[in-house]
Amino acid sequence: MSGSDHILVTRADYVMTLQINRPEKKNALTVAMYQTLADSLLAAEADPSIRAVVIRGTDDVFTSGNDLMDFMQNPPTGDDSSVGQFLKAIVTMKKPLVGIVEGMAIGIGTTMLLHCDLVYVGSNARLKLPFVTLGLCPEGASSLLLPRLVGAAKASELLLLGEAFDGAEAVSMGLANAQFPSEDLVTRAMAEVAKVVAQPPEAVRVSKELIRGRDREAIGTVMKTEFEQFMGRLTSPEAAEAFQAFAEKRVPDFSKFS
Predict the structure, then answer these.
(1) What's 250's DSSP letter?
(2) Is the dihedral of CA 255, 68, 221, 206 positive or negative?
(3) Per the structure, how many domains does the chain have?
(4) Sign of the torsion angle spanned by Cα atoms 39, 42, 43, 44
């Protein structure tokens, strides 16, 4: 199936909503899905009738992260890959980008939130950065942005231990703006988005550029380094053990590595 089959794109009231819709795979992102997300973000940027973009998942999961089997079969090759295009699009987006998170947000599901201007989480939200646990490394400029947001000690805890945290902690860390009851999340979050798109659109874009623009070059440099390391880690013996353990539903054994 194409990426467009799993990314639902709707437009209403100055807002483009990109809904990750692959519930049978816990909304895991494929290369094709990344391409649809990237193309949609570029289309929203060029469309004067769109003033904000919302990324959300389904009622019980935002995204479980990358579909690792798909990545192994279709490895990204650089900045011009679908993954690279998506990452570049969320970094360079001039219009407000809003994340609405229900259920699991794993890996890229959490790191993409670092690039959102507003983030709202449900009471059922569970966020996780299990890169090291999988024998991989941080991506999405998280090795730069997360320490800036929460400090080096907390960032090390989140990235090196890879343990899940809930929506309330995401709010307390500054990763999310507010937590709402899951049954009301979308309604209340979209009410906040409506406030943004009611503002003068050029003033919003200029203000976003002042807030985020100065970091763009550094983010791009870090993303490139992370991407190179991440792709090398995908074929590492440590990652192979982590993936095999996951498939066999056992605890990985890293005792033989040094």
Answers:
(1) S
(2) negative
(3) 1
(4) positive
What does the alpha-carbon distance between residue 203 and residue 197 come to, in Å, rounded to a whole number? 11
Show the domain range for 91.
3-182
Residue 147 resides in a domain: yes
Q: Which of 147, 34, 41 is nearest to 96 (CA)?
A: 41
| pLDDT tens-place string over residues 7-22 | 999 999 999 999 999 9
Q: Which stretches does DSSP call E strand in 115-222?
A: 118-122, 126-128, 165-166, 178-180
* Residue 17: partners with Cβ closer than 8 Å, 6 or more residues away: 8, 9, 10, 11, 53, 54, 55, 56
Q: Which of 136, 2, 150 lies closest to 65, judged by CA?
A: 136
d(CA 53, CA 68): 27
In the numeric block, which tokens belong to residue 233? 């880690």
* CATH number, residue 90: 3.90.226.10
Report if residue 95 sits inside a domain.
Answer: yes
213: in domain = no
Q: Is residue 99 part of a domain?
A: yes
Give yes or no for a contact between 32 and 82, defined as CB atoms under 8 angstroms apart. Answer: yes
Tens digit of pLDDT for each residue in 90-145?
999 999 999 999 999 999 999 999 999 999 999 999 999 999 999 999 999 999 99
SS3 label, residue 244: helix
As given in the structure block, the two tokens for residue 88 are 């570049």
Q: Of 132, 133, 134, 128, whose CA–CA distance to 243 is shortest?
A: 134
Question: Whole-structure pTM over 0.85, yes or no?
Answer: yes
